[in-house]
Amino acid sequence: MPTFVSNRFTAIAVLMGMQAFLCAPALAQPAMLAPAAAADNAKAAGPGQTAVLAGGCFWGVEGVFEHVRGVTDVTSGYSGGEASTAHYDEVSSGETGHAESVQIRFDPQQISYGEILRIYFSVAHDPTQLNRQGPDTGTQYRSEIFYADDAQKDIASKYIEQLNGSGAFARPVVTRVEPLRAFYPAEAYHQDFIAKNPRYPYVVFNDLPKIRNLEKEFPGFYRERSWP
């Protein structure tokens, strides 16, 4: 078992992960399928676009979007704090302002920003958990959308209003919407972590079920991972 992520686990979490290695299908949590965004941009040919999203451990969010048709690249990293503290050991303290985030590059002719957000809310994380996701707690695991422009801000804000107004989730969506100041790629060992470590206990218990939910709930967007 790698030692570089020891601060992501408690002893209990490790034991839970080992259990999940044996019976993950039975323990997998169902997706909370969000309705389509009522306010969205039309799909059209044009330059590639970028979304930056935070939703707990970046391994799982990255892993989901690596399987989404129309996504051309996904990078794990940090957003919300300063460049000087954009390092895993410091971010893990919860005191840097950073959130573990993913930068998603996508083709706007194949998938819209609103569809990216629908997948994010439905299967990539639980947007009703405040400053935590599953076994991970702290502000670095918060749910947050970092918008690149006014169009993204408008779509994200209206979508959250829509979700809360419709009662799509049993609890209020607590996702923050803030401007993107910068995105800092994480250390190399965090990139493509699920693809490189599919049998790692944390991944089996927490992340692989998200990818299975993507395939089940969004078959039109699901694809096998298409880059190294």
Description:
The chain has seven helices and eight strands, in the order αβαβαβαβββαββαα. The protein is of the alpha+beta class. The protein has one domain (34-197): Peptide Methionine Sulfoxide Reductase, Chain A. Helix 2 packs parallel to helix 7. The radius of gyration is 16 Å and the shape is globular. The two termini are 23 Å apart.
CATH topology: Peptide Methionine Sulfoxide Reductase, Chain A
Number of domains: 1
Mean pLDDT: 89
Distance, first to last CA: 23 Å
How are helices and strands ordered from N to C? HEHEHEHEEEHEEHH
- Could you say which overall geometry the principal axes of the C-alpha atoms support? globular
| CATH 4th-level superfamily | Peptide methionine sulphoxide reductase MsrA
The stretches of 5 or more residues where confidence is low (pLDDT under 50) are: 1-6, 9-28
Largest sheet: 6 strands, mixed
CATH architecture: 2-Layer Sandwich
Q: Strand share of the residues?
A: 15-25%
How many beta-strand runs? 8
The helix count comes to: 7
Which class in CATH terms?
Alpha Beta
Labels describing this entry:
single chain; alpha+beta; six-stranded mixed sheet; 35% helix; globular
Briefly, what is this?
The chain has about 230 residues and is α+β, with helices and mostly antiparallel strands. The protein contains seven helices and eight strands, in the order αβαβαβαβββαββαα.
Topology at a glance:
Elements: H1 11-27, E1 49-55, H2 58-65, E2 71-79, H3 88-91, E3 99-106, H4 113-124, E4 132-133, E5 136-137, E6 143-147, H5 150-166, E7 176-179, E8 184-185, H6 193-196, H7 201-217
Parallel strand pairs: 6-7
Antiparallel strand pairs: 1-3, 1-6, 2-3, 2-8, 4-5
Helix pairs in contact: 1-7, 2-4, 2-7, 4-7
